[in-house]
Amino acid sequence: MNIDEKIKAKSVDPASREMLQVAADQNIETVWERLEKQQPQCGFGELGLCCRICAMGPCRIDPFGEGAQKGACGAGADTIIARNLIRMIAGGAAAHSDHGRRPALLLKDVASGKNKNYELVDVEKLKAVAARLGIACKGRKKTAIAADIADIALNDFGKQDEETLAFVKAYAPVKRLARWQKIATDLSAATEKTIGILPRGIDREIVDIMHRTHFGVDHDPLSLIAQGVRASIGDGWGGSLIATEIQDILFGTPKIREATANLGVLSKDQVNIVVHGHEPILSEKIVEIASSKVMEKLARKHGAQGINVVGMCCTGNEVLMRHGIPIAGNELQQELAIITGAVELMSVDVQCIFPALAELCKCYHTHFVATSDQAGFPGATHIQFEETEADQCAKKIVTMAIENYDNRNHDRVYIPEITNSAMVGFSVEAILDALGGTPEPLLDAIKSGAIKGVVGIVGCNNPKVTHDFYHIELAKALIAKDILVIGTGCWAIAAAKAGLMQTETAKDAGPGLRAVCEALKIPPCLHMGSCVDCSRMLVLAGALADALGVDIDDLPLVGSAPEWLTEKAVSIGTFFVASGVPVHLWPMPPIAGGDQVMEILTKTAGEVFGGYFFVEEDPLKAADEMEKIINKKRQALGI
Ligand code: BF8
């Protein structure tokens, strides 16, 4: 297929390029065209200088110092920027943590016997989580242990006392916990105002942000950002971690396995069902029901060769990690999957789902099915998912997809024949297994310099950046420098599609990393899961820090969100920084209009937490900067 040069600039992914060409030929609009129509975008908004918090607004600050320097209430640039920024953190932390609440509630219902649609699949994980939380296991039924875990998790959401979250205390490394306490004490003494860093209730910290950013409450950039940090810790070491750990108990802890990635996983002659969004509770059932003999028979009756369930975004990552379900693509490919004309049904739950899909699906035979009470899509078919009727709901969805195969216009189908294989499933447990049960071999490789350090890459696609370009170039540059790359979310999907998660890719790594990968038979880029699974990276960092008797910020670790888009990514970046990890970002977040906010996030944070933000547009320069940081940390550790 001949691809226009303009399309090549939109994505480096060959399958996406083909589908963008198909879309252009059919005159179908995608996110790229819609973004183009938004140009030029508001310069005040880009710098973070627009305030819409009260009805005197919208107010804006003139970045050139000539016009207004204060909003109508008197709020200056840094107050406005800090308020806007922490509202982003609140949005991100709320999305992750509310996701975590669902499996916690489900665990409680499974434990009590109220929900018989699900089971406690991973008893080993159940006991490991219980041990962390100090719950006795000996001689007790697994349902009793599960009930205790669920109670502790649910209590962490709505706690009203000043005590730190149970999950934070159980999982954060000892030195980091003490550091957070000391930071709060020092900041409070310096400002003569009580500033907290350790999160109380997960929900409470989010409400606190909404309260203090309300008109006329907190105007101090430092205490505003400190609250953002507090809520982000409640997300990373609280809500997200609860999601990961309890989903592992309910659905199994990911193990290393082979899988396939990119739009070519859609099938020409099977019923294609795409599961898209973030919460795996329904998609687990869709995968199970779709693989049943009854459904297979029904699909054949309708002329299909079977049923092909594939994933998109993080719901896709969840079923990829646990079952090896092929992944069709990352965030910027959600529309492209529909444009293949081969999708009978796309089932969505929550987060990162374009509302444009509902209209787009009407141009094809595709059923667009929304399932969450929290996510309405005008134009979608809504099939309400209730956990207590999960089997029935999944049957209804799978049957609907099969029956829709009759309506497929085979002449209109275009599936790019492009896929790549990937080794996935690198939970902390799977990594430790691959290392022989302890982190020692990884630590030895780091100490010897075979692996110089580890970079965790997370986050999204953003049409302001050529799709997947930054993700791939950065990862390639890092592995060539003997830096192990781990990551989640849309980065992980980009890396899988680009072949960076194959053991053979070790040949493109530096000699040290290559030798380690070949000895352990692992790729140089490790898929650690969905975005809530950033908690897996925190747990790994914590385990390494504890094993060395140091704090996380002593370790040669760096984070990056190189094509970030969502508020969740802002929360993730912030909890990495709070945990002691320097974090690279691109595109530029909306903070550049405030000198004080910039200073706090790029410098003061480093002095206080050991982690800080830096921004770089060029992936090779970003990789150089990361190597510098890693070398500095190595030097300080004396390795
Ligand atoms: O949670 S990486 S675009 S899909 S926010 Fe969304 Fe960003 Fe993708 Fe998963 Ni994460």
Main-sheet strand order equals: 6-5-4-7-8-9
Identify the bound ligands.
FE(4)-NI(1)-S(5) CLUSTER with Oxygen
Q: Structural class, judged by helices and strands?
A: alpha/beta
Strand content: 5-15%
- How many helices does DSSP assign? 26
Percent helix, as a range, is 40-55%
Here the CATH topology of the largest domain equals: Rossmann fold
The parts where pLDDT drops under 50 for at least 5 residues are none
Verbal overview:
The structure is a single chain. This protein has 639 residues and is α/β, with parallel strands linked by helices. It has four domains: 5-60, no CATH class; 77-251, Up-down Bundle (Substrate Binding Domain Of Dnak, Chain:A, Domain 2), CATH 1.20.1270.30; 263-412, 3-Layer(aba) Sandwich (Rossmann fold); 425-637, 3-Layer(aba) Sandwich (Rossmann fold). Helix content is 51%, strand content 10%. It has a six-stranded parallel beta sheet with strand order 6-5-4-7-8-9, with helices on both faces. Strands 13-12-11-14-15-16 form a six-stranded parallel beta sheet, with helices on both faces. Helix 16 links the parallel strand 7 and strand 8. Helix 10 (202-212) packs antiparallel against helix 11 (221-251). It is globular and about 75 Å long. The N and C termini lie far apart (51 Å). The model has no long low-confidence stretch (mean pLDDT 98). Bound molecules: FE(4)-NI(1)-S(5) CLUSTER with Oxygen. Residues 278, 313-314, 330-331, 352, 459-460, 489-490, 530-531, 565-566, 568-569 line the site of FE(4)-NI(1)-S(5) CLUSTER with Oxygen. FE(4)-NI(1)-S(5) CLUSTER with Oxygen is lined by residues 278, 313-314, 330-331, 352, 459-460, 489-490, 530-531, 565-566, 568-569.
